[in-house]
Amino acid sequence: MPRKIIIDTDPGQDDAVAILLALASPEVEVLGVVAVAGNVPLDLTTKNARIVCELAGRPDIKVFAGCDRPLRHELVTAEHVHGKTGLDGPVMPDPSMPVEHQHGVDFIIETLRSEPPGSVTLCPLGPLTNIATAFEKAPDVVARVQEIVLMGGAYFQVGNITPAAEFNIYVDPEAAEIVFKSGRPITVMPLDVTHKALTTAPRVEAFRALGTEPGRMVAEWTDFFERFDKEKYGSAGAPLHDPCVIAYLIRPELFSGRHVNVEIETQSELTRGMTVADWWHVTDRAPNAMFMGDVDAEGFFDLLTERIGRL
Asked: 209, exposed or middle or buried, with CB in 10 Å at 0-12, 13-18, 19+?
């Protein structure tokens, strides 16, 4: 039985690769894709989600527009990383598939109510605004969630948008706090993991060598956003953050981590959006998340290349 998932996303080149991985993998069934404001504003993330579904040959996937701003604060975006469209790099045709009329948050609520309890996994790849809004609007659906597997946060790598905070959590820390206090099983792919999944030249060439349109797009997207991270970190390539979420659902053995307590800082001006992970168990706070710390990068890229090659 494939695992039923809802992808909540703010594409973003790495989000796009994650969506392609999911749509190429029989282990997961994508019930819908919900866009959120994050890397770029909502109109662009909604457009980009449809572009990616069409690239995968799946115009049948339902794409919804969710929240256009964080719960309590102004939106912070990341055009400096992803370009003004969010999918800068190759020239992409405008999508022809429609956006669903229903609000993305209502889709999440309705799906969790209609599917059997404990059968739907939420996969947030961006700020957690939509998920938190659904949980606040319909508290009855929280207990029906199978698991939340998200990309966000950091502990040893600390921050990438401020010295203390990772982008997805920083954009909407109040939403993150609601999700982390929800009591549902949570698996976190923080920068500690994603910064070990770097696109090296041979890995990018492997995508290009697939000789397919999705393979070429993935190579050109990584070519684009790699430049920013190489310059910033002095690394051999750029981290492919969001595909780690989908890879975990397909091959969990690629990842290792610890079940620890994770608290979200919402008050401090200095460390707002920080994910305070009790990695060393120095408090008596109850563990609430599987916080990943390592990834088999070779295995991860082998999986990614093989699956993108199926499209």
From this structure: middle
